[in-house]
């Protein structure tokens, strides 16, 4: 075996004073050799961080004012382009761009200049680049950047929408507008049913603008309009409210009211008429058009009311007579009739209904016709003759007479009247204002205009008939009769009998 050198340590190095031990020089550690590797590692890490920082900053600087990868504007790829490059590329595409919108009978071609549009490259591209953060490029590199909306927004600000809406408005002026589903009366079926909606040919301006925006955003040159771009109805036949309205309407048209006066039918409220009054309100409820219903009732009341109206008839002796005025006749109670019709329609009532009247006549033959029966007194002012007919229409009494002086003040009034309560004897008193001008006692007083004008005996008259009434012998308005004839008539006529006084 070989020997290793031994280093001796002086005795003073040991405080204990113990024996001296040899030391193995080869096993002693060296502090300098341990520090050198650690220092090398630190330098390497620092260099790497510096390099990464330089790379990060360099890439960030590169993408400042430049588009990230996967950047598009419509179909145009602007990836890695600088602001000026992107402006130039987009300007080239847009300068030659023309949008054609066609379909459903509509045609429109628009260029940027046609629509008053312009491409502000600096502003548009600036907006696009503002969406990108170059200092976040490690995250931005893998993300898609679609900047189409920035371009579309700029175009919309310039008038594309206005140009499209103007064109659609002109087109729609002669197009067929859509029609909502509704309910309608089917005459053949005699009932209400749902009428389906109709789309028509008018375009939905909002839909066309949206399609133009979408095409422009992708820089597509063609938009094809389909039925989906047409104006749509707002109410469709599937709306459950329409089915309910049909049921309501069919209940109303179930009404059938036959309106009569003195047994004569003057009107009928039936399905065909009620159907004209049914409409839909804003909530799609079937409701009555009360204005139309009221107008119909007003017209019927006016036609059927005869008081004071002109009537024409032929007297038993063949003379044709036309008379108007007076207080006799039928006067329809319009308010009560309106209530009957409204209630009847809403409940679907059927049956015969007498038209309510405040006054009634003894017969009814329609507007303009004779509305009294066979029994009546006929005073013919032109003939100065009076005739009385009984219930069978037979002439049972007649006499010449003298009527009022035709001076506009004492004329005997024409018209149709009722005979008021007769009296025998009676004193007739005449006034001129508050001044009494005569007081005459008669034996037979038969008034028909209030208690002021009537028939009575007049023994002071020299004769009767002819033209005496306008030759100074006319009365103050009454119908003067020979005393004997007045007595006969008094025995025949009754209060409530019809008096017709005419020329």
Describe this protein's structure.
With 503 residues, this protein is α+β, with helices and mostly antiparallel strands. Among the domains are: 240-359, Ubiquitin-like (UB roll) (Roll); 376-502, L,D-transpeptidase catalytic domain-like, CATH 2.40.440. It is built from twelve helices and 27 strands. The strands form ten sheets. The protein has a five-stranded mixed beta sheet, covered by helices on one side. Strands 2-1-5 form a three-stranded mixed beta sheet. Helix 5 packs across helix 7 and helix 6 (160-172) packs antiparallel against helix 7 (205-217). The protein is rod-shaped. Keywords: Cell shape, Cell wall biogenesis/degradation, Membrane, Peptidoglycan synthesis, Transferase, Transmembrane, Transmembrane helix. This is L,D-TPase catalytic domain-containing protein. It comes from Rubneribacter badeniensis.
Structural key phrases:
503 residues, alpha+beta, Ubiquitin-like (UB roll), L,D-transpeptidase catalytic domain-like, five-stranded mixed β-sheet, three-stranded mixed β-sheet, 12 helices, 24% strand, rod-shaped, peptidoglycan synthesis, LD_TPept-like_central_sf
Shape verdict: rod-shaped
**What's the CATH H-level superfamily name of one domain?**
L,D-transpeptidase catalytic domain-like
SS class = alpha+beta
Largest sheet: 5 strands, mixed
Which CATH top level class of one domain fits?
Answer: Mainly Beta
GO cellular component, one term: extracellular region
Keywords: Cell shape, Cell wall biogenesis/degradation, Membrane, Peptidoglycan synthesis, Transferase, Transmembrane, Transmembrane helix
GO molecular function, one term: transferase activity
GO biological process, one term: cell wall organization
């Amino acid at each position: 075996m070989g020997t290793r050198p031994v280093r001796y340590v002086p005795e003073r190095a040991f405080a204990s004073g113990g024996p001296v031990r040899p030391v193995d020089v080869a096993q002693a550690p060296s502090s300098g050799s341990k520090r050198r590797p650690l220092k090398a590692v630190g330098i390497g890490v620092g260099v790497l961080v510096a390099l990464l920082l330089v790379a990060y900053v360099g890439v960030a600087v590169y993408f400042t004012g430049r588009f990230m990868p996967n950047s598009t504007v419509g179909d145009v790829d602007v990836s890695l382009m600088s602001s000026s490059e992107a402006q130039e590329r987009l300007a080239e595409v847009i300068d030659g761009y023309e949008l054609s919108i066609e379909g459903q009978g509509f045609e429109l071609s628009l260029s940027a200049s046609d629509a008053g549009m312009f491409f502000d490259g600096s502003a548009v591209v600036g907006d696009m680049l503002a969406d990108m953060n170059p200092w976040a490029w490690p995250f931005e590199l893998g993300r898609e950047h679609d900047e189409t909306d920035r371009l579309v927004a700029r175009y919309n600000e310039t008038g594309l929408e206005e140009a499209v809406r103007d064109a659609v408005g002109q087109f729609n002026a002669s197009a067929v507008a859509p029609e909502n589903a509704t309910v309608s009366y089917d005459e053949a079926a005699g009932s209400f049913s749902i009428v389906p909606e109709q789309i028509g040919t008018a375009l939905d301006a909002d839909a066309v603008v949206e399609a133009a925006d979408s095409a422009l955003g992708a820089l597509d040159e063609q938009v094809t309009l389909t039925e989906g771009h047409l104006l749509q109805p707002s109410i469709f036949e599937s709306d459950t409210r329409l089915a309910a309205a049909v049921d309501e309407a069919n209940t109303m048209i179930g009404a059938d009211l036959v309106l009569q006066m003195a047994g004569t039918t003057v009107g009928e409220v039936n399905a065909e008429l009620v159907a004209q009054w049914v409409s839909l309100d804003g909530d799609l409820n079937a409701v009555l058009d009360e204005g139309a219903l009221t107008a119909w009732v007003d017209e019927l009341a006016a036609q059927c009311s005869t008081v004071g109206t002109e009537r024409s008839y032929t007297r038993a002796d063949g003379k044709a007579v036309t008379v108007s005025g007076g207080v006799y006749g039928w006067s329809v109670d319009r308010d009560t009739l309106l209530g009957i019709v409204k209630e009847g329609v809403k409940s679907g009532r059927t049956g015969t209904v007498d038209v309510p009247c405040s006054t009634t006549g003894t017969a009814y033959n329609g507007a303009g016709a004779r509305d009294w029966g066979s029994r009546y007194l006929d005073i013919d002012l032109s003939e100065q003759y009076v005739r009385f007919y009984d219930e069978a229409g037979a002439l049972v009494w007649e006499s010449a007479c003298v009527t009022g002086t035709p001076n506009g003040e004492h004329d005997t009034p024409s018209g149709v009247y009722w005979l008021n309560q007769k009296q025998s004897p009676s004193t007739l008193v005449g006034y001129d204002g508050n001044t009494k001008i005569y007081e005459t006692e008669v034996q037979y007083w038969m008034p028909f205009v209030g208690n002021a004008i009537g028939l009575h005996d007049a023994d002071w008259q020299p004769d009767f008939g002819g033209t005496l009434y306008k030759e100074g012998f006319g009365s103050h308005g009454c119908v003067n009769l020979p005393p004997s004839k007045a007595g006969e008539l008094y025995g025949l006529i009754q209060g409530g009998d019809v008096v017709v006084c005419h020329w």
